[in-house]
Amino acid sequence: MNIRDKTKLNLRGRPVATNREARRQSILKSAYEAFVELGFAKTTTAEVARRARTSKRAIYEVFESKTALFAAVIFENQHLIIDLPRADDELLPIEETLFRIFRLDIVAKEAKAREAILRLLTRESILFPELTDYLYEHEVIRSRELLIEWLELEHSRSRLSVNDPELYAGMLMDIVFGALLPHRPSHSEFDYLKRVEDIKQRLCIIITTML
Q: How many domains does the chain have?
């Protein structure tokens, strides 16, 4: 096959791949909206298909089960939860790096999406422990592990003194996510910004124990 023939083949194949990815993204978007609004139990593949304007068969061609679809939704939005791993050559001040790791300066729209994902994970992990097990077994959720690896790396660089990275990773996540999920949802931007500033101050306090 000459180069011209290969080019024709690639051009013919490209729309198929593009359409498949577009369909997958449409399903994920619709599933995200359904899971956030209805929860895992009340969300059916029929409901996702209706929202995505596709068929249940089309969903099962991409995702083997509703659990796999849920896992894909979480994986697709994990960047909203934690921004790791970091670039190998990143040498920002520790506090600035932590602010970026926990994405404390994202815009309001992304902040709301993050809160929705965190609430979804928190709610479903209580109702369906086996669902959480599935997410961990398939390494969909690795926020804690990635944070431990980052702490170990900074310790090896002598930028931090962390003898128990697992303990510190747990404390950091409790500080951030505990404050990002208030008991009562707030639609006030002022309240959100105040929470973020409080988180930053708390992170700065714990950083002093790691220097």
A: 2
